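User: Just a sanity check before I run the rest of the batch. Below are the structure tokens for the first item. I only need the designed sequence back.
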């Protein structure tokens, strides 16, 4: 299997390359924090705690999206069989409770401050990120956001543009935006007239604290956590920020690296966007034993979901040395 450096060597000189970051990027910093088991332990399902946690236990999973899909499937079956409206209403309510619990769990388990990450780690990840022309991320957390803003650290003169300007307003179409949060993020919120972001300065509340204040007021970050790729795409299409970011992915005409993605079906909308693009070559990361059952499935899915008029190759995730 290729190392990350060997993959870079295969790119013709002068060719631009971008990256799509997924959960493995955050897990590479701390696998204990950024996993579903930890999130489920922190989740609070209000007066539906027993019922919803029993769904996780019965399915033998920590994955919120799997349970969301089960609720979705149950709803479809019950509608087809003419189930009473009270049960359908409860399922709809449980879906909302599940989604809100996930958002609040992410907020409560998230590192409190940018200083929880060392300067050495920031410099390492910034050195990794600065190689790419455009950066797309599927992660909700603030790790990438913090890293890109640490412009007082090496490498010098490395800056990115997230498309936000005065008054924290998103102005993407009028900017040189090259950073895209495809599924939203903790720091992004929709006022229904504008897309805005939370920022952190020495004289303001940390972003995580700002998010918690909003949650207490019933205001949630811009998140795409729908159960299926069809519904995720619909959510994206109905938001100006998300739809713009998605179009930018579809408009890519270069080489793409994918780091830390399990290549599961629930992000098929992202893979379809990549297939519609002009991307000529895709490098997909693999963590651990490339011959394991899970990685064999990853390879099979990657070829199925991504292969079009392009080439797909695999590289060793650990060799990229993202955080250390």
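Assistant: Here's the designed sequence for the first item:
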């Amino acid at each position: 299997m290729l190392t990350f450096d060997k993959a870079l060597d295969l790119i013709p000189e002068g060719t631009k390359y971008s990256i799509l970051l997924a959960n493995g990027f955050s897990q590479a910093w701390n696998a204990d924090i950024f996993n579903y088991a930890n999130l489920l332990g922190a989740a609070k399902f209000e007066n539906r705690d027993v019922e919803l946690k029993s769904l996780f236990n019965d399915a033998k999973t920590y994955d919120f999206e799997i349970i969301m899909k089960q609720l979705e499937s149950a709803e479809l079956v019950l509608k087809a069989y003419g189930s009473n409206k009270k049960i359908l209403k409860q399922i709809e309510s449980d879906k909302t409770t599940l989604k809100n619990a996930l958002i609040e769990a992410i907020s409560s388990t998230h590192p409190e401050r940018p200083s929880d990450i060392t300067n050495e780690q920031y410099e390492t990840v910034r050195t990794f990120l600065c190689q790419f022309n455009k950066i797309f991320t599927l992660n909700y957390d603030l790790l990438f956001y913090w890293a890109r803003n640490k412009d007082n650290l090496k490498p010098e003169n490395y800056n990115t543009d997230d498309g936000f300007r005065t008054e924290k307003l998103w102005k993407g179409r009028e900017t040189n935006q090259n950073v895209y949060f495809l599924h939203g993020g903790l720091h992004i919120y929709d006022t229904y007239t504008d897309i805005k972001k939370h920022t952190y300065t020495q004289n303001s509340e940390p972003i995580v604290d700002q998010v918690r204040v909003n949650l207490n007021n019933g205001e949630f970050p811009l998140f795409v956590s729908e159960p299926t790729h069809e519904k995720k795409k619909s959510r994206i299409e109905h938001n100006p920020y998300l739809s713009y970011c998605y179009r930018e992915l579809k408009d890519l005409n270069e080489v793409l690296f994918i780091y830390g993605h399990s290549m599961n079906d629930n992000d098929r909308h992202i893979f379809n966007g990549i297939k519609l693009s002009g991307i000529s070559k895709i490098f997909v990361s693999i963590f651990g034993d490339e011959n394991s059952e899970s990685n064999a499935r990853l390879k099979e899915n990657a070829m199925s979901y991504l292969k079009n008029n392009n080439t797909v190759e695999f590289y060793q995730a650990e060799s990229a040395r993202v955080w250390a």
